[in-house]
Amino acid sequence: MTDRRNDPIRSFNFELEIDDIPRGAFSDVTGLVSEVQVAEYRDGNDRQLHTRRLAGLVKASNLTLKRGVTPDDSLWQWYLNILNGVADRRNVTITLLDEARTPKIRWHAEQCWICKIEGPALKAAGNEVAMESVEIVHEGIVMELA
């Protein structure tokens, strides 16, 4: 009988796809949040002295991606489209990979567009990795186990 270790999936190995086209890997993602807002309601002739709490609108947080600088400028070109008034909405998939680069979890975000892009902080005396940040607005996110 062999002992099998079940290690947790490490959270530093992500892939980004835009409209099913791989656009690179990145080291940090935040905003994988979907929240149902609470709508409070009370009818005028209710006998209860409390409000009813109903499921309201779904609110999605913006996705923030941070990655190393690469020669691929596709995210910047997408941002320029938005900046120039082009309604350029795309679908984004973020995939968490295990150490063997096998997909484990995917998050699909729909109707996305870039609302903020930040270049790296450049310091001649520093030894940090040059990172850039992209913030993406979306209209809904779905998680899928691979």
Provide structural commentary.
This protein has 146 residues and is mostly beta strands. The chain has one domain (14-33, 61-145): Pnp Oxidase, Chain A, CATH 2.30.110.20. Helix content is 7%, strand content 50%. It is built from 1 helix and 10 strands. The protein has one helix spanning 74-83; strands spanning 14-18, 21-26, 28-30, 34-41, 52-60, 63-68, 90-97, 103-118, 131-137, 141-145. Strands 1, 2, 3, 6, 7, 8, 9 and 10 form an 8-stranded antiparallel sheet that branches. It has a two-stranded antiparallel sheet with strand order 4-5. A hairpin with a 2-residue loop joins strand 1 and strand 2. The protein is elongated and about 70 Å long. It starts with 13 loop residues before the first strand and ends with a strand. The relative contact order is 0.24.
The fourth-level CATH homologous superfamily is Hcp1-like
Average pLDDT over all residues: 84
Structural class: mainly beta
Helix content: under 10%
How many strand elements?
Answer: 10
CATH topology: Pnp Oxidase, Chain A
β content, as a range?
over 45%
Cα radius of gyration in angstroms: 20 Å
Overview features:
146 residues, mainly beta, Pnp Oxidase, Chain A, eight-stranded antiparallel β-sheet, two-stranded antiparallel sheet, 10 strands, 7% helix, elongated
